[in-house]
Amino acid sequence: MLQKELVDKLVDEPCGDPVKDGHAGLCEKHYKEYLVDRINKAKLDPLPLYEKDGNIEIILMREEKAVPEKEEDETDDHYKQRLIEHIKREVPLQRGVEAQEPQPAANVQEPAQ
């Protein structure tokens, strides 16, 4: 659905892209946007899904971060755990405005405790 602005109101209209079964009546693009919004509102961390899939390097590549090399004698489990810790440091979850610490407005004193 697209939200179109008319002179006196906003109207939701189909975007015109094909709708897939099981996508809540949305095209693929808008369904993905809907899912991301739901994930963010629920403050879910997608990292465990990548861990299960065994493809956690993709997170670093997508964020254009260096992927640490696996050490010669390192086990797969240890390497995976090291990647997870690296991701948590290098690609912290961002939750838009709500992730930022509230900042007092300029020239406004905080209330006394």
Automatic annotation (TrEMBL):
Give one Pfam hit by family name: E3_UbLigase_RBR
The Gene Ontology biological process annotation of the record reads: protein linear polyubiquitination
The region called Disordered is annotated at: 91-113
| Stretches assigned to the RNF31 C-terminal domain | 1-53
Cross-referenced InterPro entries: RNF31-like, RNF31_C
Gene Ontology MF term list? K48-linked polyubiquitin modification-dependent protein binding; K63-linked polyubiquitin modification-dependent protein binding; linear polyubiquitin binding; ubiquitin protein ligase activity
Query: Record's Gene Ontology CC terms?
Result: LUBAC complex
UniProt name for this protein:
E3 ubiquitin-protein ligase RNF31
